[in-house]
Amino acid sequence: MGLEMDSMASAIGVSVPVLRFLLCFVATIPVSCMHRVVPGRLGKHAYAALSGVLLSYLSFGFSSNLHFLVPMLLGYASMVLFRSHCGILAFILGFGYLIGCHAYYMSGDAWKEGGIDATGALMVLTLKVISCAINYNDGLLKEEELRESQKKNRLIKLPSLIEYIGYCLCCGSHFAGPVYEVKDYLEWTEKKGIWTHTPSPYGATVRAILQAGICMAIYLYLVPHYPLSRFNDPLYQEWGFLKRLSYQYMSGFTARWKYYFIWSISEASMIISTLGFSGWTGSSPPKPRWDRAKNVDILGVEFAKSAAELPLMWNIQVSTWLRHYVYDRLVPKGKKAGFVQLLATQTTSAVWHGLYPGYIIFFIQSALMIEGSKVIYRWQQAIPPKKVLFKKMLVFINMAYTLLVLNCSCVGFMVLSFHETIAAYGSVYYVGTIVPIVIFLLGFIIKPARSVKSKGRKD
């Protein structure tokens, strides 16, 4: 078996640990399908927990489950003992333990060298633990004090331990997300709400699997042509500016297909379990929606008209989590969110990903990228309807700006180290940093008329 795995791993260009992870990851699809036939509410929770434990053991070894146990127990203890403060306690303790694991394992280096560990799964688990505790904390508040998302997700009653563990380790999203709410998990298990009668998931599952296969094929084709090691190659420095810029674009483009593959498999896993079901469309006849499982809109990312759209297209469920549990909660009552809330949210996202300078730089720069895109959008909305051509030009400029800055910035997300990130940014004269800053500052100088801007925002 070891020799067979060696040959399989070398055939697709990955290490044996990564191949073992991929096999277990793909196995979440049939394992999730079996969840539907497990009898009884208690049986389903136990199956979710035990299957998650087993797949984690096969993927990462025994120690992975010990790592998962720590934030789970800390989060549950905070809900049992300190309900009025359990949200902030779970946030601090969960992120604290995750940061400690990031510092100890430095997983980014291992991933770059073909290794794998449980830190990625721990990242997903941390968000689940925190959201569960915050929603239980929200159960103490008056309904009129809550936002709509808080009203929808708050918990009045503490989940039992087996319900909580099943939610945390349910294999449908255990390895790579998407993150979902504990209230949805409980209703799905008990076949309540929209899950009382669910449509057949097989057609949507096949679509997600086909999408995963296409994404992996594209990634395997492109990655030999655009290796990250090229950034340290003296030949790269000898290229002209445009060639270096195009290489950075293609490196970012190539890396994204790996994530598209991973999220497509997760989507298939959640859909086939029916947990990915999110209701029916308003069309006639109505069609089933599987948005709860959707973590990426591939065409939406690659052809985004604005950088502000990217959080709605990329790692969708984590972006939603960050909005509900960080961004919205930092906005004082009666005031609007601004750049401070956006920067704090992006910094939280950076720390969640890891302690590498490349992550921090990328997410801070992405906050500038989004603000710059908003400025261009405001200018676009201020153009009178008669000047259609000029308006379309600004739409094109915003799209080109988004693609340029995103693909220049995401190099830091891939190379990780401070030296390599700065060297890569410097090789294209910090275009991805300077352009957003210039546009952001111009937004204070070139301001559209108030009446036109208000109408644009309303639209």
UniProtKB/TrEMBL annotation:
Membrane topology: Multi-pass membrane protein
TM region(s), chain numbering: 12-34, 46-70, 82-105, 161-180, 200-222, 259-280, 350-372, 393-416, 422-446
GO BP of this protein: lipid modification; phospholipid biosynthetic process; triglyceride biosynthetic process
Record keywords: Acyltransferase, Membrane, Transferase, Transmembrane, Transmembrane helix
Entry EC number(s): 2.3.1.23
Pfam families: MBOAT (PF03062)
Class of the enzyme per the UniProt entry, highest EC level: transferase
GO molecular function: 1-acylglycerophosphocholine O-acyltransferase activity
Keyword Phosphoprotein (UniProt): no
Localization, UniProt: Membrane
InterPro entries per the UniProt record, alphabetical: LPLAT_7/PORCN-like, MBOAT_fam
One term under GO cellular component: endoplasmic reticulum
Name the record gives this protein: Acyl-CoA:lysophosphatidylcholine acyltransferase
Species in which this protein is naturally found: Bernardia pulchella
